[in-house]
Amino acid sequence: MAGLMYRKVISSEPEVGQTHLKRTLSWWHLLALGVGAIVGTGIYTLVGIGAGLAGPGVILSFIIAGAVCCCAALAYAEVATMIPASGSAYTYSYVVIGESVAWVVGWSLILEYSLVVSAVAVGWSGYAAGFLASLGMPLPAAILAGPAAGGLVNLPAVIIVFVVAGLLALGTKESATVNAILVVVKIVALLVFVVAAVPAFNVAHFHPFLPNGFASHTVDGTPSGVMAAAAIIFFAFYGFDAISTAAEEAKNPERDLPIGIIGSMIVCTAIYVGVAATAVGSMSYTLYAGSSEPLALILRTLGHPSAAVLIGAAAVVALPTVILAFLFGQSRIFFVMARDGLLPSGLAKVNARTGTPVRITILTAVVVATLAGVTPLAKIAALANAGTLLAFIAVATCMLILRRREPNARRVFRTPLAWIVGPLAILGCLYLFYSLPHQTQGFFLIWNLIGLVCYALWRAVGSRRAA
């Protein structure tokens, strides 16, 4: 119980000897970081997977997943400005609830961020292969998939992870600026898709709207329908939580964090609704369900090969923004946990020249590149969602606890209707977790059991903090 009761205190004055990150990011860096993290694999690749589960009802899946994320984003905005420190949900849980809960949340964030980077790298590989094939340079199938998918290793996925890690190691501001430029490229490409596909829009493609029902199961018990798709597509909406990991590097966190978190959700929701509706209305979902590059496939089928090449090129160039945002977030989670003594303190080293945690960035790249090289996209995405759902529940809970414990505390951003939004975020996340495949739920529980064993061993040998 000692670990559970101990709560971290965030001081305005740096602790003596503690390593800190440089404040180099402005609000537009954070907004671009959020948009770069959110608009990516979800709309470029998971549209096909979601359509396979829900048919045209995948639009409802996007709306439901987006609504839950909006509630969570409001909670994040309030808590992040009250606790403007790196570490995201892990740090908030440490400050508000206690060390043991913080460990579980941090352990789940490790799962989330690592697997998101891996999943996006796999998605990028699919678009890169399709783009090169369209130029007459097909890659061997053996290096485009892991053993589970009949290949040897997904080599392009491994390579892109290390390229992005190298960029992050060069400097936070430099990588954020490159990210902002690539985000513009990505949004322009999605606008091209909408303009090219809209002329083929046909309401007949929306019938039957719910071919697999709202919340059903297949013969073998696998979840299907709108909610099953929402539980996977949820992966397409989160990413704003990566913004909160940059709190220690924001020039004015109290102003910049809400702009980044709320602003990115508004921009991305509008983009998603428009692109998803266009995709469903322009062609029967059965033709692109399960495709790793559904948008490019739709354009090729509709007779727009040049636009399809552009979409593929944009995905190849811009999907790494998602990898950058989440690899950035993962390295900061590792960094803060190491600085707190919950991971080896040697990982909490900041390079004197670049001001970045180079050592932990490279270590993270090794882990996620290995996963990307051998694991299928759908399984990665579902397991990553489980970790995110727990983190969102933790942040919404922290917001409600602080509202009760410190009702008069200064709040730069106040969540509207907090006692409605907070419970909706928690209940929505719980239902989405329930809608995940049973295998995914089982793997997530096993992951956290392993984490609790690691925490118990750490507590047994003691920490750098005196009891």
From TrEMBL:
Bilayer topology annotation: Multi-pass membrane protein
Keywords of the record: Membrane, Transmembrane, Transmembrane helix, Transport
Record localization: Membrane
Record keyword Ribonucleoprotein present: no
GO MF: amino acid transmembrane transporter activity
Annotated transmembrane regions: 27-47, 59-77, 89-110, 115-135, 141-168, 180-201, 221-240, 261-287, 307-329, 356-374, 380-402, 414-434, 440-458
Keyword hit for Membrane: yes
Gene Ontology cellular component annotations, sorted alphabetically: membrane
Annotated InterPro entries: AA/rel_permease1 (IPR002293)
Protein name listed in UniProt: Amino acid permease
Lineage: Bacteria, Pseudomonadati, Pseudomonadota, Alphaproteobacteria, Sphingomonadales
